[in-house]
Write a structure and sequence with these properties.
Length: 212
């Protein structure tokens, strides 16, 4: 029967030293993991708080862009020759609705009969219950037939919340910005709209009239 040699019986130095983790090493590892977890949680909490704070601001910025984009679209399609379309008044003017100034726009629109002829649509931008609304009336071939804003065939869309008041001025050659913009005001090439917000800030945009 063969006996193992003395060299084979000799234990490896590495095997002798391997004895697993000590309790102290485990406690240190757990403490490090706990610190990392706390740091990660604080970072996630800060990220969520920042997102919760920025989301309303992002939504408001999108609403502002959409609002002024819609105004630009409407004003760009204003007929530049009111007499050609036999309009009873200028296509852009400021009215008083519920005691507040409102911007009235008459823009070109496709004829409702599908003939492809040009028709006209009355629009009113106004501040109501702390928000800016866009009221759109029925498309008509004859704007001499007026329709009340609160009639059932008008559609109202909320555009921008947090608005206290609106001011509109028109550009006149050799005079600059003038107000009010009413039926007696000559057709203006540009319109300035200012919106005063709940936080005291003022949004200002300038639009070309009849740019299309």
């Amino acid at each position: 029967m063969n006996r193992p040699s003395a060299r084979a019986r000799r234990r490896s130095p590495n095997a002798a030293r391997f004895h697993g983790f000590t309790l102290l090493e485990l406690l240190v590892a757990i403490a490090i993991l706990a610190v990392v977890a706390v740091i990660a949680w604080q970072g996630l909490s800060t990220l969520l708080a920042t997102r919760a704070r920025l989301d309303p601001e992002v939504d408001d910025a999108r609403a502002v862009v959409a609002t002024f984009g819609q105004m630009q679209e409407d004003l760009a399609h204003v007929p530049v020759n009111a007499a050609l379309f036999e309009l009873p008044a200028q296509p852009v003017r400021v009215l008083s609705v519920d005691g507040q100034p409102a911007l009235e726009i008459v823009r070109l629109a496709p004829s409702p009969d599908g003939s492809g002829a040009s028709a006209l649509q009355p629009l009113i931008y106004r501040v109501h219950d702390g928000r800016l609304e866009r009221d759109s009336g029925p498309v008509q071939r004859n704007m001499a037939v007026t329709v009340a804003v609160d009639a059932g065939n008008w559609t109202s869309v909320d555009l921008l919340p947090g608005v206290d008041a609106m001011a509109v001025r028109a550009w006149k050659a050799n005079a600059g910005w003038v107000a009010p913009v009413d039926a007696a005001t000559a057709a203006a090439p540009g319109i300035e709209v200012q919106l005063r917000r709940h936080d005291g800030g003022v949004l200002r945009r300038v639009f070309l009239v009849g740019a299309q």
